[in-house]
């Protein structure tokens, strides 16, 4: 078959590398991954340290601007974001235009794309000042968009942002609160969600980020590029895996299947069934984010006093899989999505909103990567080559 390799075509040698398993599309100074050692660093800082000590907005600043902010820079960044959390009033009718059965990822990507309609003067990718404002607008408005997508799908009134609250608290209140009612956000829960956003904030040239860069390489604006990233993230092999994991766990639970027979189905590749939340293109040892999430899952369930049989099921699945030759030989380990769904479910999010939470976390990474791409003198429009394997020249039949 056609694998990785150099092939001679009419135009010379091209490298055929489906899925880009061995092709770098850019040089980047943002995120470092060593997949064999299970190392992930943003701008040099280990993910474990950031997850423990930083905040999502501080980490976002780090990713976007390259250095940790000073206290003054951080509060300026937070203030700028707070000032821009509102959506234009007319934008609200946008949400009511979708059926309530709409998948929120479709609503969110459309809304991000539609942001460009409100800021026609900010679309020049080389206007540094406008790019800065667009970056802040996206960070500020995505939580409002995500909350409105949820509220309109369940037919509840939309809540304006409350800018006395922190980034995550504000999002939780807009999602679960009601007008004229107090919504108390448990600070421990907000801190854990903030930490989950840090874990998702960047992951170098993954599918959605590569999409953002590729779209941007045509000099498309930041809103359009990020909207494309949201769509790429939706797929179940990428960010959509968090929804797929929970559906898999619910399926096993309700069928009464035991874990071993499910794992056997996966090994026999019956109906193409995969162990969702397992495996990663780059991590061939363990996913350092999964280790942090696993610890947090227990904490969230304890804090909320929730007992979820799906967590036990997930832990059993992990145990059985990690002791099984199929998974060991293929170096398949739990990835970041394996446990996040259990947390999101405990927090009260509907299953189809899980990938939106991933998008909220990944946003600063998309922005940082787009900005690096647009300012890199080595950037060219992304335009892969192909190896043509179709029919040779033939002629249209005469009537
Ligand atoms: N369950 C069962 N088998 C698997 C799994 C899995 N989750 N993942 C990979 N394999 C098997 C493949 O079938 C293949 O076996 P084979 O050699 O017998 O054909 C082998 O392991 C290698 O897998 P590839 O598909 O070649 O690995 P690739 O790097 O292309 O895919 C991916 C990585 C997409 C993450 C894959 O592991 C997968 O589909 N996992 C489930 C979905 C998932 O959890 N996605 C989230 C990824 S993390 C993220 O986006 C944040």
Q: Hey, roughly how much beta strand do the residues contain?
A: 5-15%
Weakly predicted, low-confidence segments:
none
Mean pLDDT: 94
Quaternary organization: single chain
Pathway: Carbohydrate metabolism; tricarboxylic acid cycle; isocitrate from oxaloacetate: step 1/2
Pfam families: Citrate_synt (PF00285)
Catalytic activity: oxaloacetate + acetyl-CoA + H2O = citrate + CoA + H(+)
Protein name: Citrate synthase
Task: Compose a concise summary of this entry.
With 399 residues, this protein is mainly alpha-helical. Helices cover 54% and strands 5% of the residues. The chain has helices at residues 47-53, 56-65, 71-82, 92-96, 104-118, 128-154, 167-176, 187-200, 207-216, 222-234, 241-255, 259-267, 288-304, 309-322, 325-329, 337-347, 354-375, and strands spanning 5-9, 12-16, 31-34, 39-42, 45-46.
Labels describing this entry:
399 residues, 54% helix, two-stranded antiparallel ribbon, mainly alpha, 3-stranded antiparallel β-sheet, 17 helices, binds acetyl coenzyme *A
Question: Can you characterise this structure?
Answer:
Strand 1 and strand 2 form a beta hairpin. The protein is 54% helix and 5% strand. Strands 3-4-5 form a three-stranded antiparallel sheet. 43% of the residues are buried. It is mostly helical and 399 residues long. Helix 13 runs parallel beside helix 16. The mean pLDDT is 94. The chain contains 17 helices and five strands. The protein binds acetyl coenzyme *A. Pathway: Carbohydrate metabolism; tricarboxylic acid cycle; isocitrate from oxaloacetate: step 1/2. InterPro entries: Citrate_synth-like_lrg_a-sub, Citrate_synth-like_sm_a-sub, Citrate_synthase, Citrate_synthase_AS, Citrate_synthase_bac-typ, Citrate_synthase_sf, Citrate_synthase_typ-I.
């Amino acid at each position: 078959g056609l694998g990785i390799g150099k092939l001679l075509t009419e135009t010379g040698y091209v490298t055929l590398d489906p899925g880009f398993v061995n092709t770098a599309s850019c040089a980047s100074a943002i995120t470092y991954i060593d997949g064999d050692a299970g190392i992930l660093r943003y701008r040099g800082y280990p993910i474990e340290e950031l997850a423990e000590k930083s905040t999502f907005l501080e980490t976002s600043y780090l990713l976007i601007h390259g250095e940790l902010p000073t206290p003054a820079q951080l509060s300026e960044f937070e203030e700028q974001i707070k000032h821009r959390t509102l959506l234009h009033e007319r934008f609200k009718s946008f949400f009511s235009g979708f059926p309530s059965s709409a998948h929120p990822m479709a609503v969110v990507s459309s809304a991000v794309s539609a942001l460009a309609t409100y800021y026609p003067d900010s679309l020049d990718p080389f206007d540094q000042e406008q790019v800065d404002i667009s970056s802040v607008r996206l960070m500020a408005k995505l939580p409002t968009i995500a909350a409105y997508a949820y509220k309109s799908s369940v037919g509840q009134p939309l809540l304006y942002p409350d800018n006395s609250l922190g980034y995550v608290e504000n999002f939780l209140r807009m999602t679960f609160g009601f007008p004229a009612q107090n919504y108390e956000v448990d600070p421990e829960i907000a801190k854990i969600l903030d930490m989950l956003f840090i874990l998702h904030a960047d992951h170098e040239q993954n599918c959605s980020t590569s999409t953002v860069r590729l779209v941007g390489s045509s000099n498309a604006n930041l809103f359009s590029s990020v909207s494309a990233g949201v769509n790429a993230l939706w797929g179940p092999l990428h960010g959509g895996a968090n929804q797929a994991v929970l559906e898999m766990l619910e399926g096993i639970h309700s069928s009464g299947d035991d874990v071993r027979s499910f794992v056997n189905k996966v090994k026999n590749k019956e109906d193409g069934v995969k162990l969702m939340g397992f495996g990663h293109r780059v991590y061939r040892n363990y996913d350092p984010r999964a280790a942090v999430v696993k610890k947090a899952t227990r904490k969230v369930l304890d804090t909320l006093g929730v007992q979820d049989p799906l967590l036990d099921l997930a832990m059993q699945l992990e145990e059985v899989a990690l002791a099984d030759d199929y998974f060991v030989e293929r170096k398949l380990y739990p990835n970041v999505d394996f446990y996040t769904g259990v947390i999101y479910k405990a927090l009260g999010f509907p299953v189809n909103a899980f990938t939106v939470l991933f998008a909220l976390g990944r946003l600063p990474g998309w922005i940082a990567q787009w900005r690096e791409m647009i300012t890199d003198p080595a950037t060219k429009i992304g335009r892969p080559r192909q190896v043509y394997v179709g029919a040779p020249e033939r002629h249209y039949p005469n009537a």
